[in-house]
Amino acid sequence: MRFLSRRLVMPNDLNFAGSLFGGRILEWIDEEAYIYASCQLDQKSLVTKHMGAITFEASAFQGDVVEFGLETTRVGRTSLTVCCVVRNKGTKQNICVADDIVFVHIDNVSRKPQAHGKTKEELDLLPIEPPGYK
């Protein structure tokens, strides 16, 4: 799993108890997973079809930096399934795991599923990070 992106937990991201709001982290997961899937397939016309089990394991607080680990778990004819782990950058403790996020490639005009033309084997060979990214 590659940790590709980071976010700073800001005051507007907190719930009434002072920890990171679950809805905010789900919004971030959907966005980060879309960006990852879009880059993997080299396609922009993707929609989120399904998010499976979401497990919240720890809290994050104002000032924490969280990072998003993503990997492709399955490639279908029109779909891509992604796993996302959100962890605290400093402690490396998992905050949240979303292990079944399915994106479907759609036709721009008809909005119907359309083959993306990629295989898992092809995607496994792609470099994710740009050179020098740490």
TrEMBL record:
Family under the similarity heading: Belongs to the acyl coenzyme A hydrolase family.
So which domain of life are we looking at? Bacteria
Q: What does the entry list under GO cellular component?
A: cytosol
Q: Which PANTHER family match?
A: ACYL COENZYME A THIOESTER HYDROLASE, HOTDOG ACOT-TYPE DOMAIN-CONTAINING PROTEIN
**Full protein name:** Acyl-CoA thioesterase
Q: Which InterPro entries match?
A: Cytosol_ACT, HOTDOG_ACOT, HotDog_dom_sf, Thioestr_dom
Q: Write down the Gene3D superfamilies for this protein, in alphabetical order.
A: Hotdog Thioesterase (3.10.129.10)
Record keywords: Hydrolase
GO MF entry, a single one: long-chain fatty acyl-CoA hydrolase activity
Specify the HotDog ACOT-type domain's residue ranges.
1-109
| BP GO terms, sorted | acyl-CoA metabolic process; fatty acid catabolic process
